[in-house]
Design a protein that fits this description.
Layout (H helix, E strand, L loop, with lengths): L18 H6 L13 E5 L4 H12 L3 E6 L2 H13 L4 E5 L5 H14 L5 E4 L14 H29 L3 E6 L11 H20 L5 E8 L2 E2 L8 H4 L12 E2 H12 L10 E4 L21
Length: about 290
């Protein structure tokens, strides 16, 4: 889906990559890298999840995507299947373990036991933390932290019971610095990072590797939730003075899932153009206090 930039906002800071553009984007990986492998990607109907699912499929994996919007999921699966890839979709709320179990059972029956899990599902909205309603806070934490955990645990239990190795990549956020305007998601994502580092140790005897990818400002349709005043300053988000692309994040996920990441577990791979070292990202706009 093409995203139109708000008035006065550079088009480069919106997510406008079509499925075709994602599919034909150059990659450093060989086309049969994941032949015979099965992957599940949550939040696979758009943004980083869509880019990652299509890249895995392009590299030979059989892929299942899930999310809460059937129209988005159907578009991605229809596109991939038209390219000759194996990609199925299922509506799944990752906050509901019963739905997650149904997803994994269908994947096992139709594609085979999964080898890879990409936890990308999540969401947030910009607002001053002091004004968060309890319901809004809980919704973001339930989605971004609890949903990720339920997916992780279900995958790990399946691999343990089948005595199979597995790989998990969690999409988080850059948590070394604060991210004003989305304190709820930073709290949840920091929880995922701590969780990842902990179970990387617990699950090492099971031959399960688990890592995080932390994107900085990335040009996807998700940027549409941020107000024009936030967009106006996105060029100051990192020293490279541009957003990342969904494909760049997808390539980082593949690096960790492939043999290239075979000796990496419990880590956070930051892909933010140097933003955590230098840069400012005000997701709800810069308050007057910080303008000078």
């Amino acid at each position: 889906m093409t995203q139109t930039a708000p008035p006065g906002v550079p088009q480069t800071f919106t997510g406008n990559d079509s499925a075709e553009a994602l599919w034909t984007a150059p990659t450093v990986y060989r086309t049969d890298l994941f032949a015979g492998r099965v992957a599940i990607v949550s939040g696979g109907g758009s943004g980083i999840g869509r880019a990652t699912a299509l890249l895995l499929a392009k590299l030979g994996a059989k892929v299942a995507i899930c999310g809460r919007t059937p129209e988005k999921l159907d578009r991605v699966s229809a596109f991939a299947q038209a390219k000759g890839a194996v990609l199925i979709s299922q509506v799944t709320d990752v906050r509901e373990p019963v739905q997650i179990n149904a997803l994994f059972e269908r994947v096992g029956a139709e594609l085979g036991a999964p080898d890879i899990l990409i936890n990308n599902a999540g969401g947030q909205y910009p607002q001053a933390a002091i004004d968060f309603a309890p319901k809004g806070w809980s919704a973001v934490v339930n989605n971004n932290l609890n949903g990720t955990w339920f997916m992780m645990q279900r995958a790990a239990q399946g691999w343990r019971d089948a005595a199979r190795p597995g790989v998990i990549v969690n999409i988080v956020a850059v948590t070394e610095r604060g991210l004003p305007g989305v304190a709820h998601t930073i709290a949840a994502r920091a929880g995922v990072v701590g969780l990842t580092r902990t179970v990387a140790i617990e699950w090492a005897p099971l031959s399960i590797r688990i890592n995080c990818v932390a994107p900085g400002l990335t040009a996807t349709e998700g940027l549409a939730v941020y107000p024009p005043e936030a967009h106006a300053e996105f060029a100051r988000a990192n020293p490279m003075r541009r957003p990342g692309t969904a494909t760049e994040i997808a390539e980082a996920c593949v690096y960790l899932c492939a043999p290239s990441g075979s000796f990496i577990t419990g880590e956070v791979l930051t892909v933010d153009g140097g933003g955590k070292l230098w840069g400012e990202l005000w997701t709800a706009g810069r308050p007057e206090y910080f303008r000078h």
